From TrEMBL:
Residues 1-17 have a biased composition (Polar residues). Residues 1-22 are annotated as: Disordered. Keywords: Isomerase, NAD. Residues 47-341 form the NAD-dependent epimerase/dehydratase domain. It comes from Aspergillus lucknowensis. PANTHER family: UDP-GLUCOSE 4-EPIMERASE (PTHR43725), UDP-GLUCOSE 4-EPIMERASE (EUROFUNG) (PTHR43725:SF3). It comes from the Eukaryota. Its cofactor is NAD(+). InterPro entries: Epimerase_deHydtase, NAD(P)-bd_dom_sf, UDP_G4E. This is NAD-dependent epimerase/dehydratase domain-containing protein.
Length: 424
């Protein structure tokens, strides 16, 4: 594979913590607040964000800049657009201007992360000439996976080649450069059919070695068995395989710290209206599909199954505002770099802990936009499950992270983005 020339842009000044931190209410919050400041990079240190112009990647890139991190984004633009980088920079600079701080530095490299020559050149560029040599990249956040369930069923090798083989080559290259702080974009799909039988999912429902945990609801200690149950599609399997590989890497070399963040259903967009969900390829997720109806590009919204075992028959999901999800990556990075995580490999659910049905989401969108969204029931899709909701307690305890935004907030922010886009 060949790479495009690197596109470099920089914000001025050294990184600083750009928001006014809240007054800590507990000792844990004191520790987390201290660790956040301690983990911020020096002026020459960067966080590498692979796939950083996609929906979740761009919002995370913005939150990292707002929190004071210098960033390097690698993206091959296969499912994103170059101008998203400009939007991230603009939103960050507007934020820092209001906060009275200088915006950290940002760099864009237009390349495929599987292009090992391009990645090696980038990593070498960010290696010091000191003795001993060291990388100025202090951590990596990896988003560059294919993620469409239906597409993965049709093209499984495409998913295993990019999501699994690409990850192996990347980790080997990072290991050569002694970059061993890694945040992995995983998915609730690793829980497979358990999501249909469990009201809410905990991390111990899918583990890569046997472990014992305390079930607070039952008041007893339980044993979690290695593996997962009934993963329904190659996309989910690719995430499970990737987690297992990373767990094995950490077991072999304890110098690594890898946090795998299991996403539930990201929705909404940054409140500035400068960033949204705008994939090049067709997306089957609920919000972008609804946007196509709201903007008149398609006449109606397809509802995949109305006979699920749920209160209104439509599928139930844990819908999380993408800005909350993005901040979860910052919390994970701070915890990893401050040494607060008790294991070298650790998984975390990033969700709200509450489920909303597809019908409920559509009705909320209609209320916010004051527009009707025509819809029709169609057959269930292969690989779908009826319900998928997180137990996010581990992230709250160990990362000091929790969601702040509601379903309605996500709908308001989406409509704001669409309204701004129509004026541009």
């Amino acid at each position: 594979m060949s790479s495009s020339p690197a596109c470099n842009n920089s914000g001025a000044g050294s990184p600083q913590f750009c928001s006014d931190p809240p007054t800590p209410a507990t000792e844990l919050e004191d520790i987390i607040e201290h660790d956040l400041h301690e983990s911020l990079p020096s002026e020459d240190e960067y966080i590498l964000v692979i796939g950083g112009l996609g929906f979740i990647g761009s919002h995370t890139s913005l939150e990292l800049l707002k929190a004071g991190y210098n960033i390097i984004i690698v993206d091959n633009l296969s499912n994103s657009f170059r101008d998203v980088f400009d939007r991230v920079l603009l939103a960050a600079k507007l934020y820092c201007t209001r906060a009275g701080t200088q915006c950290p530095k940002a760099e864009l490299c237009c390349a495929d992360y599987r292009d090992l020559d391009a990645m090696s050149t980038l990593l070498t560029k960010h290696t010091t000439d000191t003795n001993p040599r060291r990388s100025t990249i202090s951590g990596v956040i990896h988003f560059a996976a294919y993620k469409e369930v239906a597409d993965s069923i049709k093209h499984p090798l495409k998913y295993y080649r990019n999501n699994v083989q690409g990850l192996i080559d990347l980790v080997a290259l990072l290991d050569e450069h002694n970059i061993k702080s890694f945040i992995f974009s995983s998915s609730a799909s690793v829980y497979g059919t358990l999501s249909g039988s469990s009201p809410r999912l905990r991390e111990e429902d899918c583990v890569h070695e046997q472990e014992t945990y305390f079930d607070a609801d039952a008041g007893i200690h339980l044993s979690a068995q290695q593996g997962s149950t009934g993963i329904t599609n190659p996309y989910g399997r690719s995430k499970f395989f990737a987690e297992a590989i990373l767990a094995d890497v950490c077991k072999a070399d304890p110098a690594w710290t890898v946090l795998a963040l299991r996403y539930f259903n990201p929705i909404g967009c940054d409140p500035s209206g400068l960033l949204g969900e705008d994939p090049r390829e067709s997306a089957s997720n609920l919000f972008p599909a609804a946007v196509k109806v709201l903007t008149g590009r398609v006449p109606e919204l397809s509802i995949y199954g109305t006979d699920w075992d749920t209160p209104d028959g439509t599928a139930v999901r844990d819908f999380i505002h993408v800005s909350d999800l993005a901040k979860g990556h910052g919390a994970a990075l701070a915890a990893a770099q401050a040494g607060r995580i008790r294991a070298t490999f650790r998984t975390f659910n990033l969700g709200t802990g509450s489920g909303h049905s597809v019908d409920e989401v559509i009705r909320t969108l209609e209320e916010v936009t004051r527009r009707r969204i025509p819809r029709r029931a169609v057959e269930r899709r292969d690989g779908d499950v009826g319900s998928c909701v997180a137990i996010p307690d581990r992230a709250g305890i160990e990362l000091g992270w929790k969601t702040e935004k509601s379903l309605r907030d996500a709908c308001v922010d989406l409509w704001n983005y669409l309204s701004i886009e129509r004026r541009l």
